[in-house]
Structures are given as structure tokens and as C-alpha cells.
Design goal:
The structure is a single chain. By secondary structure, the protein is an all-beta fold. It has a single domain, classed as Metal Binding Protein, Guanine Nucleotide Exchange Factor, Chain A (Beta Complex). The protein has strands at residues 14-17, 23-26, 30-36, 41-45, 51-53, 57-61, 64-73, 79-87, 99-102, 106-108. The protein is globular and about 40 Å long. The protein starts with 13 loop residues before the first strand and ends with a strand. It binds zinc ion. Residues 17, 19-20, 22, 73, 75-76, 78 line the site of zinc ion.
Length: 110
């Protein structure tokens, strides 16, 4: 594996990967904390950094069917959540391009 160049976020409210502590997002990017991930609570983020995306696939959630991609930490390759690519329900279209990150996969950087 080559050398990784990770983005370093500034400010006091940065969330990191629980496994490798790579910076993932600023608190200001949180749109909602009222989401459900695969294994519990999850946050909806407008944007995250230091991630790569899995292949697109259709998944059915409580709120409808979506085309999503897994969101993977670039530094340790943990799956931390998913990104909504396309909503098949018009009312849920605001989620498109946004990121769900499992609460258990992130923590506040110290
Ligand atoms: Zn990581």
C-alpha cells in the first residue's frame, strides 16, 4: 500500500474514525442525529473526508428504497456508513449525496 495523504480538519469539533482516528467530518456538517444505522444510531452528514465509496447498490430502508454506496474509511478500510446516491421516493430526495455515518464508528477528536 502506498503512502496515504489524509485531510486534516481544523477546529474543535472534529469527528474521527474510532478505529484509526483519521479525521472524518466537522460537527457543522451534521444535518441530523435522528437516523438509524445498521447497528444503532447514526448521523446524517452533508460531507465527510478521508473516505472512499463502494459500488452502488439498491437497498430498502424503512423510509423507502434507495441506491446507496458504502462509505469506507480511507485509512483503515472500515465501513463507517453509506451515501445516498438516488432516492426512489421523491419526498426523500433531500438525502441524495448525503452521508449516513454510524455513531459507533466515530468519536470526537481530542
Ligand atoms: Zn479508520
Amino acid at each position: 500500500m502506498g503512502k496515504l495523504y489524509l485531510t486534516h480538519l481544523g477546529g474543535l469539533n472534529v469527528y474521527c474514525c474510532t478505529k484509526c482516528r483519521a479525521h472524518l467530518a466537522n460537527k457543522e456538517e451534521i444535518i441530523s442525529k435522528q437516523f438509524q444505522g445498521r447497528s444503532g444510531k447514526a448521523y446524517l452528514f452533508a460531507s465527510v473526508v478521508n473516505v472512499c465509496l463502494g459500488d452502488p447498490e439498491d437497498r430498502v430502508f424503512n423510509s423507502g428504497e434507495y441506491n446507496v454506496r458504502d462509505v469506507i474509511c480511507l485509512a483503515c478500510l472500515s465501513i463507517i456508513g453509506w451515501r445516498y446516491e438516488k432516492s426512489y421516493e421523491e419526498t426523500q430526495a433531500y438525502k441524495e449525496g448525503k452521508y449516513i455515518v454510524e455513531k459507533a464508528k466515530i468519536l470526537k477528536c481530542k
